[in-house]
Amino acid sequence: MDPETIERLLALAARHAARFRAQSKDWPQRPQRSYEQCRQAFDGPLPERSQLPEEVIGDLVAAAEPGLMMATGNRFFGWVIGGSHPVGVAADFLTSAWGQNVGNHVAAPAGAAAETVAARWLLEILELPPGCSIGFVTGGTVANFVCLAAARGEVLRRVGWDIEAKGLFGAPPITILIGDDAHTTVFSVLQYLGLGHNSLVRVPTDHQGQIVPAAFREAIGKAKSPIIAILQAGQINTGGFDNFSAIIPAAQTRGAWVHVDGAFGLWARASATTKHLASGIDLADSWATDGHKWLQTPYDSGYAIMRDELAHRRAMTIAASYLPMAAEGERDPTHYVPELSRRARGFAAWAMLRHLGRQGIAEMVERHCRVAGFMAAKLAAEPGIAILNDVVLNQVIARFGADDELTIKTIARLQEDGVCFAGGAKWRGQQVMRISVIGYETTEAEGARSAEAMINAWRIAKQSG
Question: Which residues pair with 286 in a beta bridge?
């Protein structure tokens, strides 16, 4: 492909992207086509001949745009997934154009170097021990996977079992302590690691989904070594935090590896007004968090953070004769993630940390927490609407009326109206609306507009019976 065609093609894609971002705020905050309608738009016979590049991009845009969720909008509250900030998108655009495979530091020195610096900055802003290692992975699920793989290997090594050499066949059993309201992906990760999602000690939680410290102490007192304890920063429905200062020392007395799933809650450490929620979290052994949440990077961005770099490397290092070895002081990216071939995730992380800085991230966290509190108060003032959580961070769970049906109808009406988007969930056996405030452009004004839309949807649902 000649240089003029490449320039024209990439400029065309950039114009489509800019137009989408400019217009999407005025569109309904939901997909305008169903999955089946989207499938039909993409469908057709396998092409026999090549199609012009501009035509392919035009057809892609025409097929995709009506089925896009407005997750980049300022009134999207469906999940805790961030808004893909334009600076991160631009960096990610370049990442794709540069086509770097960060399999090692020799094949992609710039990609590896960006990760090295971004890793140091992340430890600073999250106030975690400066010697920690970080693997740049796809998201929170794989970050949990990497951390718990290292935890599995290390706790077994302490009792004389080399899992990297022998595998799990005949290995001593591991006791896994986990809160009843841990995120579903953590249970999946334990399944992937051969530890099972049912062969666990589930520790009781309180009304916020936080582990009850006394129950944890009782459970770990009965546990047989080796032990892995899994805690949570930011319960997916309530935003609640486990009591790290009380629980981690209790776990350490039994030699447990303590892992924290902090997909979005770990970012509370970035703000002076919320960092108390995660007090004591730095005592843990590993932490998982997402970049595509409060750092607002595009997707394919998560961080597996570990205190014990050697345990991290034991679990993840990929070695072969054709792969160069890292020299003293060099960081080889393959030592910290499960993939050999992967995109250069450090570019977008570096760009967003450089753009927002410590103050920008803190301001955004604080603003989102204020918006969540404001929306909760406005909803609670309306007769028939109940807020079921203590709004300590950016999460709100609301119930509409006395039964599940009215809440389901309210959510359906809200999504049909398209002023904003929020989804449903089950909490303590009840149907609720879950509101996650995390879009980088979401302000108090947009929160007020969205709360009004929710109240209006509730009034209509109530009148319809």
Answer: 259, 306
